[in-house]
Amino acid sequence: MPKQDYAFEPNGPRRLEISWGMFWKNIIIRLDGQELDTFANQNEFRQGKEYKLDDGSVLSVRLVNSLMGQDVQVARNGKPLPGTMQDPQTRLRSSYVLLYFIGGWKILFGILGLAVNGVDFSVLSRNFIDMFVGLVFILMAYLVHKRLSLIALIAGIALFAGDSLYSAYTLYQAGQQQNVFSLLIQVFLVYYLYQGVRAIKKVKAERESSAFDPL
Length: 215
Fold this sequence. Notes:
Elements lengths: L2 E5 L6 E6 L7 E5 L2 E6 L2 H6 L1 E4 L5 E9 L2 E8 L2 E2 L7 H30 L3 H27 L2 H24 L6 H32 L4
Antiparallel strand pairs: 1-2, 2-3, 3-4, 5-6, 6-7, 7-8
Helix pairs in contact: 2-3, 2-5, 3-4, 4-5
């Protein structure tokens, strides 16, 4: 039976548990190990509910559609819980991890190209370019990860889009067609990375707010 656990605060205890059966049936919500509510099916779960907790906070839970299919939306006093896809920190982490992955893949692809093609100078330059671009992606990921650099994220998105367009152009020049599925994945990844732009702004705003909070 699939389940997800959530903490109310970053690095806090996972007090909330949501489990469900196949096809989003028999959803059970537990708080601190005690059953809080149940939903018979996904139609009921989509309607969602709000719960007034003992500490005075309001917990809201419902099922929503997302690019990945369906996702559970959980918020406390209107703020997404840590670890949910609506949480800015989660979206930010997804963006820089994806940049790290793209960079690592480009470097690996370049190294494999060198190993396979040897001293074939017709493709040697492209392999080195792939490795260099991969290093740039990793640098952008690092700046987003450690510095919350909005410029680095936008540059990473632009670099990925430009690299994808260049790859499509080289295929066209060679008389080949871009695979539609591959194109859709690239468009999805650009959109996925773009979610980090809003996330960085929200994370920065939250940090500035907490810095000026006298409590």
